Each structure stands twice: as C-alpha cells, then as structure tokens.
Amino acid sequence: MSARRERRRKAEQIRHLLETEGDAIQANTTVFNEDRYAVTAEFDEYEDLRTEAREIKEDAIERLPELVEQVRESVEANGGTVYVAEDAADANEYIANVVEEEGAETVVKSKSMTTEELDVNEHLRARGTDVWETDLGEFVLQVAEEAPSHLVGPSLHKSKADVARLFNEAFDPEEPFETAQELTEFARDYLGERIRDADVGMTGANFVLAESGTIALVTNEGNARKSAVTPDTHVAVAGVEKLIPGAEELQPFIELIAKAATGQPIAQYVTMLTPPVASPTIDFDAPDEPLGSADERDFHLVLVDNGRTEMREDEHLRETLYCIRCGACANSCANFQHVGGHAFGGETYTGGIATGWETGVHGIDSADDFNDLCTGCTRCVDACPVKIDVPWINTVVRDRRNQGADPSQFDFLVEGLTPDEEPGGMSLQKRFFGNFGTLAKLGSATAPLSNAVASLSPVRTAMDRFIGVDARRDLPEFQRETLVDWFNSRTPRAPNATADRKVVLYADTYTNHVRVERGKAAVRTLEALGAHVELSASMESGRAPLSQGMIATATENARAVADELDPYLDAGFDVVVIEPSDLAAFRREYEKLLDEAAHERLAENAYDVMEYVYGLLRNGADEDVLSGPTNPVAYHSHCQQRTLGVEAYTEAILTELGYDVLTSDAECCGMAGSFGYKSEYYELAMDVGEDLREEFADTDDRTLVASGTSCAEQMSDLFARDAVHPVELVAPDE
Predict the structure, then answer these.
(1) Rounded to two decimals, what is the model's pTM?
(2) Tell me: the pLDDT tens digits for 389-426?
(3) Which spans in 548-587 are helix H?
(4) In whole angstroms, what is the distance from residue 140 CA to residue 130 CA?
(5) How far apart are CA 726 and CA 734, in angstroms?
(6) 276 in Cβ contact with 229 (< 8 Å)
(7) Name one GO molecular function term (predicted).
(8) What's the rounded Cα separation, in Å, for the pair 404 and 264?
(9) Residue 322 contacts residue 311 (beta carbons within 8 Å)
(10) Please, which residues have CB within 8 angstroms of residue 143's CB and are 6 or more apart in sequence?
C-alpha cells in the first residue's frame, strides 16, 4: 500500500472511532484520571511505593529463572502442576489437553489479558468446548464479538445505551433492558448459572508469589474467585513476568494498582489462592452432601513465555516486563482518551505500553499501526505505578521500524540533502519532520519568498500528497533576521560586571528561525533583571528527530548541544531554555543519548525561562522593570512543563505582576509537536484540541498565552488569533 493510501486509511479509521467510540472512551478515562489525581494526592506514601514497586520488579525480572524454579517447587509441593509454555501454541495445547482430560464441556473464565494474547477462547472453541467470559466487560465483548479496548476496562468504549441495545438484541428479554441495574442483574444471573455448571475455571493472575505458589487476583467484581473455586479444576494462566518473590513484596502493588488503574483507594476484591488441591469442593447436584465429598481439586499454573525471555534480554524492551497492567498509561494519554484502544492498540494490548508488549509477543509489525499515536509527552511516565519510561519504548520501536524499512527508489532525492544519520527506506514524512533545522535554515535564508511559495495551493497539495503535511494547517513563517542575527548585530557589549548571574540562552531552532520575538523578549527580560546574557549557536536539541524515531540523529544533535554548552557551564553560566520540549530533552531524554556525567551536568543547570525569571525575582531582582497587565490572559501550559513540574512558575509570575489569569485545565492542546501537522492525525489533533477550545470559549477579551510552540500554533488554529509566549508578556519594552 502506498504511503498516501496508508495515511488515508488511518485517517478514516480514526475518524470512524472518534464518531462511534470517542465520547464513551473520553468520559470513562476522564473519570479514571480525576479519581487517580484525587486519591494519590491524599496518599503520602504514593511516590515511595512507586519507587519500591519499581525496585521489586527490577529484581524479580533479573532473578526470573530462579523464581520460575521456586514457584514450580512450591506449587508441586501443594499438589498442583506448573507448566512453562514456550509460546502461544504450546500454552494452548497444554490448556486444551487439561480440558479434555477433565472431560470438560464448559469453561468459565475471568478477565485475563494473557489468555487474550494467546487466543485461548478461540482455540478451545475450535475443539468443541464452550467458553464463557464471566467479568461484565469481557462478557459484553463476547456477546458483541469485539476485541477489548482497554487493559482494565475492556468495554470502555461502550455506553450504557450501547450495552442495553446489545443485550436486547442478543437475549430478547420480555421487558427491554434500560438501566445499569437491570443489565448487571441479568449478567450476574446468566453468568452465575454458567459458573455453577462449568467443568473448568480459568483465571489470569495479577501476581504470582514464588515462595508459596500463591495466585493474587485484584478485581472489582468477584467473578475471578468464583471461577477459580467453583469448578473442581482451576487453570491459572500468567506471563512469567507476573512472578514476584513472596507476600512481603506484594504489599506495594496491592496499594498501587487500583489507585493507578481507576483511582480507587483499593480494589473491591483482593483474592489470594494457594493451590487448593486439598480444600473442600462443591457438588451443586448434591447440595445436601457435606463439602469435600466431590473429587479432589486439580490445579494448573501455566506460565507463559511467548517472547518474554527475549524481551528480558533486550535492554530497551525489558522495562515492558515491569508492567502490572493497570492501564494508567492509556488513561493519561490525550490521544487514547479520544480514540481508545481500537486505534491505540494492537492484536492484544492497548495504550502506551502496548508498543512494548505487541513488539515482544507478536512481533514489531503488530505495533506498526498505532505506534505513532504516542507523542512522547511523558504524562504516562508520571502515571505509571512502576515508573516505566513508556515513551522511550515507543521511540525505540519507532526507530527499529525505521531501520527495517525497505529502501525506496526515491531515497537518492533526500540522502545528502538531509544531514540525518538514518538509513534509506525511512518514510519521507518522518525524514521531513525530523530534519526541521535544515528546512528552517533554508526558509530563513530565502524569506519572505519561502513563505510565499509554501503558501501556494499547488505546493500545499503536493506536501499533503507526498509528505503528509495536512493542507488545512497554517505553516510556520520563517523570519529573514534570525535571533542569532539580531543578537550579533546589537552594539557590542562588555560583560555585565555587576550581574549576579551569567546566562546562556539556548537558541532553539524554532525560536531562532520562526518565533524570533519570544527570543528577543527573553534576552530583554533576563538582562533587565540583572543577568549577563549570551546566546548559544542555533542548533537542534534532537527532540524533533527523536519524535520520529530517529535515535541516531537525535544522539548526534544531543552531543552537539553538549559540546556547545560545555564551555559556558565551565565558566559558571546557567542554561536557560525557552521551548519546554527542549528542556524535557535536556532533563530526561538526554539520559538515553549522552553519557551519565554529560547528561547530569546539563540537566542540573538547565532551566525553563519563566522558572529562571522566578528565581531571579526571588533572589532580589526588581519586578518593576517587567511589563504589567494590559489585558486579562488565557494561559495554556505545555504538557512537558507539567511533567517536569515547572508550569507553576509562569502562573506565579503573572499573578504577582497583577495579571488576571485564566489557566487551562486541558492536559493537552492536541498539536503535540509535528503530530498535528500530519494529515492522518489532523482530525484527532483537532478533536483533542476541542477540550481547550471549550474551556476558552468565552475569552475573546483575553490575550492567548502558550508556553510551547506547538501549543501556540494549535491555539491560533482553534481561536483564529495568535498566542504569545509568557516571556513576551512580561518583557520590558524595547
């Protein structure tokens, strides 16, 4: 399929899901997020437990072969059986043999993503066994014959009305179902009969304790424990990564999982099942007989590898195995909130972590269709209860997809013209957005002609057709006089001998070539507050190529930045950054791109411009030199400012200067760097932006303010007027 047709296919799929599932997904994930914020804010130990849980998972995955042997001994000592399945076919064959040996006609299951991964239901049905899902969400999907759309809430994409319509059509009740109570009561009774009649019960396992063989199930409905203990045979299916040493290590996860997943203080049910082969059984056909008169219980623990050993040996995918399947990465993701897992997901797994799981267990092609929906905003990192760097996993897989792309006959058109380090075959769209610095230099050198040419209808049509730059987007306007040109043309200045601080302002590509005014405003502001200011050479931080999965190019950019800024750091300068995504690169992504010492040095000495202004004011600088309010303000902070925890400085400064500030609660504007420019994602970007538009609907009298470049561009499209950077508001007049 051609790149253009593939973009159209993706756009059509997203458009369809926005229309059919988007409202339900957004409503449900919004509730999860709001409740998570509330419950974690009230739980003082939350961050400490995240750190502890991370350490436990790191240790458990490191010791995985040892834990597998330990749990085998524990389960077998209790009379159960452990089977380690190499892959899906191996696991399914073993499970089917257990079912056949029991002479089972029916199997009841409780929700298990691992069995979804294996396609256990389909395998058993093909061999003549009835299989019933007993958790309400999974039951809804079984009736609808649909795949899950969320790790925790599989039917999150369906509203109450959708479920009522589905059940009325499928079961034809005497009185149509209308209320949630009627639907759940029907499902409870219907599934209760199947649980009582089942020959085999199958569950997953949230955690498996190696020292005792105990299965820990964390649920809200209770059907997992019913499915496990009512039939005489219980088959527990779990990935090998679910192993932890013992009960002592379980506590942090029990505290964390419900809070992260749904914002509950704790789950409704925490069930601990140690292979109960000698415990009483139930014979529903002989209710008067004493418990234990039926046959002895049979227990099987099926531990599934299915690619996990290879993931464990992969330094970048290994973190995926720390996942406890809470779905917080999905809930916190703006794109997921609007389209759900049927777009943001693969064969089995959904949300940000799905890229790692799909690549590991199904192969990298399984992540191809949704990987680009991760924009690297890092909100999921703060949401994850075990601190998995989900965006980095997505970036690595994106890079591997680029590396494995088939060479194109048109590669010669871009090789040599773009300075990236990437191989042939990479998509022209990614190469275009990953080399913005080259485009910006050319654009400024030929402005204003470059801007006029780029705005021509035939040019926009060609860019849409061949590169996938949506023609509905306004393109950035390059400035002939760059920030570096302006700074160097100023009257030569001697060092400010009275300055308390020395600053090197990082001249990012966008500020230097497009939003020059915010750069000038930053220089004037810092100087007015008594700092001596120098300007770095204009260079790319690597954030643009990193967003396209171009790790080699991003690494080269990062090294160049470090080399440029090192002499300033040696001389005692602080680094001030205007663009939040560049600050995020310095503080976070460079950990993966530079050696430890270089990263730490830069991360510790780099500041957001408004964060630095706040510091200068707190250390005695005169705020009277700054500009005060003329209009009230509608302010939207950049998502990476929030994940870095620096957004509050802007609000504090504006408030202290007397500005009437209306701050957006919308977590994302939808633009997300180059994401909103791409034709296949334009509708999604604008749909995400709708939250911001509704929030600022009645702000015509307010000045629009945005800290990030992409945020400012999205706001300009949403409100048909320009947005300025906060430093432009407070800067002294020229």
Answers:
(1) 0.94
(2) 999 999 999 999 998 766 554 455 455 556 777 777 78
(3) 551-570, 580-584
(4) 16
(5) 16
(6) yes
(7) oxidoreductase activity
(8) 43
(9) no
(10) 166, 167, 170
